[in-house]
Design goal:
By secondary structure, this protein is α/β, with parallel strands linked by helices. Helix content is about 35%, strand content about 25%. It contains 10 helices and 11 strands. The protein has a 6-stranded mixed β-sheet with strand order 2-1-3-4-5-6, with helices on both faces. The chain has a 5-stranded mixed β-sheet with strand order 9-8-7-11-10. Helix 6 packs across helix 7.
């Protein structure tokens, strides 16, 4: 998570029972990265509590209607360079909207990170939103898998993910595939980079895997090559949280997964 948000206390405010359930989920994720994160359910007096938290510099996650958030904070808004970041979430957890201090205060990047935590869609409304999604394909395969099969699998995978082949920044795999001719050739044809990582590096994203294979673990030391490689590669492209947007897909001899991270660089 961006350091500008980490350096502030975080207050999650919910007003309904569905909102409280979402608050519980988000609080669990945020407490792993923030030293001071509290949940408030129907705080009283609501306006005073929220305004005081904002004025004291707390970053806010308001699970309520945007109109409520705007009317509550309008009297205490001062300057985009000093006001803390504020996010608004709908109670079903589908959207994350930065409404204050988007660029200067880091709310845009924070929105992307929070959205990744709860599998939501960040809605960046700044005129010049500075976050760029970057995509990485993780691939595993049998030795000497034909380039044609790898390319067909990747093309099908990006189509399922709703992105284009041109948006893939790099192809990644485990280090025992550092000389895998098909993967190297595919990356070269795409104009993408090719990176491999050790089992130790790949194991750091184990908690984010959607599937775990004991067979793969006993063979190469990680529970899944494609998903682990995609996540590890994406983490190297930015300082936000990365997410799998397409879990492991299979062909006869290969696997592919796609991860995304939001970066401030194109």
């Amino acid at each position: 998570m961006g350091s500008r948000v980490l350096n502030r206390p975080i207050r999650i405010v919910a007003l309904t029972e569905p909102g409280r359930a979402l608050s519980d989920k988000l609080h669990l994720a945020l407490t792993a990265t923030a030293h001071d994160c509290e949940q408030w359910f129907k705080p009283k007096p609501f306006t005073e509590q929220v305004q005081n938290a904002f004025s004291s510099g707390s970053a806010l996650v308001l699970i309520c209607a945007t109109g409520i958030a705007v009317r509550t904070l309008a009297p205490v808004i001062r300057d985009k360079k000093s006001d803390p970041p504020v996010l608004v979430l709908d109670e079903s957890g589908k959207f994350v909207i930065p409404i204050l201090s988007g660029h200067e205060g880091g709310a845009n990047q924070w929105a992307a990170e929070v959205a990744a935590m709860i599998q939501a869609q960040p809605v960046i409304t700044s005129a010049n939103a500075y976050l760029n999604p970057r995509y990485v394909a993780g691939m595993g395969c049998e030795r000497n898998c034909p380039t044609e099969e790898l390319q067909s699998l990747l093309e099908n995978s990006v189509a399922q993910a709703g992105i284009s082949l041109q948006q893939i920044s790099s192809i990644t795999s485990i280090d025992i595939k550092h000389d895998e001719a098909g993967l190297i050739e595919l990356a070269s044809k795409m104009g993408a980079s090719y990176h491999t990582f050790s089992a130790s590096e790949l194991s750091r994203v184990e908690a984010q895997l959607t599937t775990r294979s004991e067979y793969v673990f006993n063979t190469v030391g990680v529970y899944g090559v494609a998903e682990s490689a995609a996540l590890t590669g994406a983490r190297r492209l930015g300082d936000g949280l990365c997410e799998l947007i397409l879990p492991k897909q299979k062909s006869r001899k290969a696997t592919c997964a796609i991860a995304r991270i939001y970066s401030t660089q194109s």
